Amino acid sequence: MPALLEGKTALILGIANKWSLAYAIAGAFRREGARLVLTYQGARQKETVEELGRELDAALVRPCDVSLDEELERLAAELQGAGMRLDAVVHSIAFAQREDLTRPFAETSRQGFLLAQDISVYSLVAVARMAAPLMTEGGSITTLSYLGANRVIPNYNVMGVAKAALEAAVRYLASDLGPRGIRVNAISAGPVKTASARAVKDFSTILDFVAQRAPLRRNTDPAEVGDTAVFLASDLGRGVTANVIYVDAGFQAMGL
Ligand code: NAD
Predict the structure, then answer these.
(1) Where are the domains of the chain?
(2) Catalytic residues
(3) 197 C-alpha vs ligand 1 centroid, how far in Å?
(4) CA-atom Rg of the chain in angstroms
(5) Is the beta carbon of 21 within 6 A of some atom in ligand 1?
(6) With the CA atoms of 96, 40, 206 and 256 taken in that order, what torsion angle do they form, in degrees rounded to the nearest 10?
(7) Is this model's pTM higher than 0.90 or not?
(8) Is residue 140 within 8 Å of residue 212, measured between CB atoms?
(9) What would the CATH number be for the domain defined by 9-248?
(10) Neighbour-count burial of 13, counting CB atoms closer than 10 A to its CB (0-12 exposed, 13-18 middle, 19+ buried)
(11) pLDDT tens-digit readout, 12-46
(12) Given this model, what pLDDT does residue 2 score?
């Protein structure tokens, strides 16, 4: 079978370490022949992500803190300057204060609420606006969501509200960018033990529950998320936009 992303360049934001979903996605993209541009959040992650970038044979590894407009602008200018066309963008970024993932949702502070929305939702809008002019032949933007967007998941709280807004942002962006041949989708992944997930109080209870109840009777393998991201970025996904695709061993279908 020919490689699905041969000749395509993908910008992947959100690798912190080898457990990150973005790392599994980058690995799957590389396997399918994509040229990779990776970003990391700040100096603390630089060394790790550069090392992973070497392993993945990435063309570029650059800093990009999505809370800073100037870092997004600098990245766009560099890609533009290098004459780099983008065919795929993966936004795999979220953040909330740990205390907002441990106490009752009703106690969420205004500042904590706005922070979660800024980093986990607005950043998709900012990234799409930055990347769209570089996607001169159309392409695919994919973000990562979670079932907490539409069901109450204990302690997911402010992040559930952020994911609901993120899924709405996917639909509005898909409507704006569709005429330019740019598709925008979310993958709603089942729970996976990553650095971000560990911030949710009692996260391992969620993992155990899903493994017992999901139709496939197991948790999600990050490689499955990577393969679905390949599908969306490839020509196989050309008719799919404004969508939320569940890669969660079927758990979202269960009532009890
Ligand atoms: P992760 O901690 O490995 O990745 C989160 C990433 O967000 C990190 O790379 C971090 O540096 C980045 N980030 C946070 N603030 C940032 C900022 N200001 N600028 C730039 N980057 C910033 O965890 P993950 O689980 O791989 O999370 C990736 C995405 O997947 C998130 O959107 C998360 O909500 C989503 N998701 C995770 C799960 C899960 O169970 N792990 C399930 C569904 C969806």
Answers:
(1) 9-248
(2) 146, 156
(3) 8
(4) 17
(5) yes
(6) 90
(7) yes
(8) no
(9) 3.40.50.720
(10) buried
(11) 999 999 999 999 999 999 999 999 999 999 999 99
(12) 80
Residue burial 68-103, b: 16+ Cβ < 10 Å; e: rest: eeebbeebbeebeeeeeebbbbbbbbbbbbeebbee
Ligand 1 pocket, residue 115 CB under 6 Å: no
Beta-bridged to residue 90, according to DSSP, are: 12, 142
Does ligand 1 lie within 6 Å of residue 195's CB atom?
yes
- Most ligand 1 atoms within 8 A of CB, residue of 18, 40, 93, 247 to mutate: 93
With a cut of 50, list the residues of the chain below it in pLDDT.
none
CB 96 within 8 A of CB 199: yes
The pLDDT of residue 156 is 96
DSSP SS3 for 9: strand
pLDDT of residue 1: 67
Q: What is the DSSP string of 87-142?
A: SEEEE------GGGGTS-GGG--HHHHHHHHIIIIIHHHHHHHHHGGG-BTBEEEE
